[in-house]
Design brief:
- This protein is mostly helical.
- Helices cover 70% and strands 2% of the residues.
- It has a two-stranded antiparallel sheet with strand order 1-2.
- The chain starts with 5 loop residues before the first strand and ends in a 6-residue tail after the last strand.
- One of its GO terms (biological process) is isoprenoid biosynthetic process.
- This is Terpene synthase.
- One of its GO terms (molecular function) is terpene synthase activity.
- Belongs to the terpene synthase family.
- Keywords: Lyase, Magnesium, Metal-binding.
């Protein structure tokens, strides 16, 4: 059997016809977040190098395009910090991710307690700024979803250490938390000063919309990041999961995941068209929140080709041709 040397991306950009908007505060938040991130010895060496080319300010500006500057700045700080955590966890075993999780969660639960590790200081500083204007429900959901993120990242580190490839169902459940999307979506509430009652946020339809958006962002990310990950031998990605459990070749697995991505956009559209009414004021806020999820769907798709994280400097070319040439495996 011939070994694949390239694969064709599914055309997800064409399937998603939402309007792409970019905040006018993009340059300012990029500059200010970078100052915060690089302050003192927060990021050093190789980790600092990874920050360049990420273009996280563009991602935030596409995903929270209508946010006022102070809110967008905090959203961008979080997403940049999340990528930093992701890069840290890639190099850790499960005990390393557990100790990082302990420091971060302790900083959220006890922000007045002194934290010595760098990541603890950054977390405490961030949280103190967020709680100034975030509603109690938003604060609670932020902590809850971030806790889920760490639990799942620890499980992922364990699987990686043991060389385990989970089945599709287990992988999907885990990936919805390792993506960090749930906490990023909580920031939609913060970004637009929303105070939606818990029973509305916990309703089946709002949960379903969040899940559809999370699935699209996460599974499309698995397609876009597959090349870099396969070169490092990382199997925490839906494509190897499908190849392994369905005995598919690479292109068939990519097409399969692409189909799931398109279905998640369709699912989002159906739910969005069937939103019930909770009364004028709550409906107004729900509309803003759901539009924020749509911004995340379209923004993340376009950003993936602008960032250098997945396709280096040839993202725009790949966006046009949809051809990805496989990188050699690192020894």
């Amino acid at each position: 059997m011939s070994v694949a040397t390239k694969f064709i991306l599914p055309d997800l950009v064409a399937h998603c016809d939402y309007e792409l908007r970019v905040s006018r505060h993009r340059k300012q938040v990029t500059t200010e977040t970078k100052k915060w991130l690089f302050k003192g010895d927060n990021l050093v060496g190789r980790i600092r190098d990874k920050y360049h080319g990420l273009k996280c300010g563009l991602l935030s500006s596409m995903c929270y395009p209508g946010a006022a500057y102070p809110q967008l700045r905090l959203c961008n700080d979080f997403l940049t910090y999340l990528f930093h955590l992701d890069n840290l966890s890639d190099d850790m075993d499960n005990s390393g991710t557990l100790s990082t999780a302990d420091v971060v969660m302790d900083s959220l639960y006890h922000p007045s307690r002194y934290q010595s590790p760098r990541i603890g200081k950054m977390t405490r500083d961030y949280w103190k700024r967020l709680i100034r204007t975030a509603s109690p429900g938003t604060q609670q959901r932020f902590i809850e979803t971030f806790d889920f993120f760490f639990q799942s990242v620890t499980e992922q580190a364990h699987d990686r250490h043991e060389g385990l490839i989970p089945d599709l169902e287990s992988y999907i459940a885990l990936r919805r938390d390792t993506s960090g999307c749930k906490t990023s979506f909580v920031l939609i509430e913060y970004a637009y000063n929303l105070d939606i009652p818990d029973e509305v946020m916990d309703s089946d339809i709002i949960r379903s919309l969040g899940e559809a958006a999370n699935d699209l962002v996460t599974w499309s990310n698995d397609i876009f990041s597959y090349n870099v990950e396969q070169s490092k031998g990382d199997t925490h990605n839906m494509i190897p999961v499908i190849m392994n459990h369905h005995s598919l070749d690479l292109q068939s697995a990519v097409d399969f995941v692409g189909q799931l991505c398109k279905q998640s956009i369709d699912r989002f559209n159906t739910d969005r068209a069937n939103l019930p009414s909770w009364g004028p004021e709550i409906d107004r806020q729900v509309q803003i929140y759901v539009n924020g999820l749509a911004d995340w769907i379209v923004g993340s798709l376009h950003w993936s080709f602008e960032s250098e994280r997945y396709f280096g400097k040839s993202g725009r070319e790949v966006k046009k041709s949809r051809v990805v040439n496989l990188l050699p495996k690192r020894s």
